[in-house]
Design brief:
The chain is an alpha+beta fold and 140 residues long. 36% of the residues lie in helices and 21% in strands. The chain contains three helices and five strands. Helix 1 (39-52) packs parallel to helix 2 (71-93). The protein is elongated and about 75 Å long.
């Protein structure tokens, strides 16, 4: 069976994409991509499809599952997993030239579609309410 599995991450959200030959279905946690909420963030995931063109997705089925993080982080993790899945599938089962073309389009538009953002939340320390802030000092 021709299938690849990739992942995308943003902060604590992790999305896993399972891509195989099919008829152009894209599902997120079992539901079609069209039903993704919130409405505004749905277009962030659609960017990948619109950039590469629907014909590149016509012969693949992509199953996405996402967990952890908030709404925005999950959407960014989804779009990364989706674009990585397409690149991996084309590299493994189509040809290197098509993969290179796809990769160039994606990187030119937004590098975070293929490369993870390494920023993480800084840990809270003692002697303060947060990572950097300190408790107020009083002399009396």
């Amino acid at each position: 069976m021709e299938a690849v599995q990739t992942f995308g991450r943003k902060k604590t959200a992790t999305a896993v994409a399972h891509c195989k030959r099919g008829r152009g279905l894209i599902r997120v946690n079992g539901a079609p991509l069209e039903l993704l909420e919130p409405e505004i963030l749905k277009y962030k995931v659609y960017e990948v499809v619109l950039l590469l063109g629907e014909e590149r997705f016509a012969n693949v089925d992509i199953r996405l599952s996402v967990q952890g993080g908030g709404q925005v982080s999950q959407v960014y993790a989804l779009r990364q997993a989706l674009s990585r899945a397409v690149v991996a599938f084309y590299q493994k089962f189509v040809d290197e030239a098509a993969k290179k073309e796809i990769k160039e389009i994606l990187v030119q538009y937004d590098r975070t579609l293929l490369v993870s953002d390494p920023r993480r939340c800084e840990a809270k320390k003692f002697a303060g309410p947060g990572a950097r802030a300190r408790y107020q000092k009083s002399y009396r």
